[in-house]
Amino acid sequence: MSEVIEVSGDWLALREAEDARARSRVLAETTAGLLPAGPISVHDLGSGTGSMMRWLAPILPGPQTWTLHDWNAELTARAAEGAPPRDRRGEAVSIRTRTGELERLEAHDLAGASLVTASALLDVLTEAELRAIVGACVAVGAPSLLALSVTGEVELRPADPLDARISRLFNAHQQRGVDGRELLGPKAPTLVARLFARAGWRVERVRTEWRLDAGDPRLLEAWLDGWVEAAAEQSAAGTGAGRDPDLHREAAGYRRLRSAQSRRGDLSAAVAHVDLLAVPR
Questions:
Q1: Gyration radius of the chain over CA positions
Q2: Distance between CA 68 and CA 42 in Å, rounded?
Q3: Bridge partner residues of 94 (DSSP)
Q4: CA 217, 223, 225 angle in degrees (round to 5)?
Q5: Are 133 and 101 in contact (CB under 8 A)?
Q6: Ramachandran bin of 255, using left for φ above 0, alpha for ψ from -120 to 50, beta for the remaining angles
Q7: Residue-averaged pLDDT of the chain
Q8: Secondary structure of the chain: what % helix, strand, coil (to 5)?
């Protein structure tokens, strides 16, 4: 199996509330209006511990069966634990799990799907994986709601002269090679929209964003750690425009400054994402 991006269950739990707040309720309601009264079958790609299911199931009609696809069986096992979420009629949904790599996704893996979903997934995929997903969705003709893909835009307040350099290097890190896999990073939303459009599908886009501040300092600090660490790693390992050796030395001081601002409640960050809904014409 190819090396994949490790995602911890703790990180998914920490970000779940902000993910739920940030996703487009408008696109979710539009999606609900496209579906039959029931029963419906939802396939969630890169499902992790099931946060997309917990957020979306109460908005959709029922009865619902969710099939959770992820390479990490431990995460999908956590998703299936405990009380299942309920549909908008208050009935519990059924949950199934599947383990496998998305670059091998085929139409038969989505057979019978009424809807395909994903959240915070596209930017950690390769072009081959993205093409496989779009091809499978088009083959089964199921609307696809793809939420929270990063666009590469970040705004911190108060601003700092290093912000732009760190953002540039972080975005380069998001498009790095991992064991022969060339990640798409912020390019993914544009590519997936183009692929669906070429297939004759209609694509709706809604800008969404994380808003991180003193209301959830643990999430702000965790995001900041990852953002700066990835940029510092890229500063030394990158090439061309993706290389900035001086930043590696400056990153520690920047991180201390930002941490102090966060502890005082003076720091906030807006992290831009986009939600997409692709529908057959």
A1: 19
A2: 9
A3: 65
A4: 100
A5: no
A6: alpha
A7: 92
A8: 45, 25, 25
DSSP state of 145: E
Coil, strand or helix at 23: coil
Per-residue pLDDT averaged across 185-208, rounded? 97
Residues in the chain, overall count: 281
Domains of the chain (ranges; CATH) run 9-280 (3.40.50.150)
* Contact status, residue 151 vs residue 174, Cβ threshold 8 Å: no
pLDDT tens column, 62-88: 999 999 999 999 999 999 888 899 999
Residue 240: predicted pLDDT: 58
**Burial of 242 per CB tally in 10 Å (0-12, 13-18, 19+):** middle
For residues 220 and 207, what is the distance between their CA atoms, to the nearest angstrom?
20
Q: CB neighbours of 239 closer than 8 A, spacing ≥ 6?
A: none
Question: In sequence order, what E strands does 71-112 have?
Answer: 94-99
Q: On the CB side of 4, how many CA atoms lie within 13 Å of its CA? A: 15
Residues 6 or more apart whose CB falls under 8 angstroms from that of 96 comprise 65, 66, 67, 68
In this structure, what token pair is assigned to residue 262?
A: 């966060």
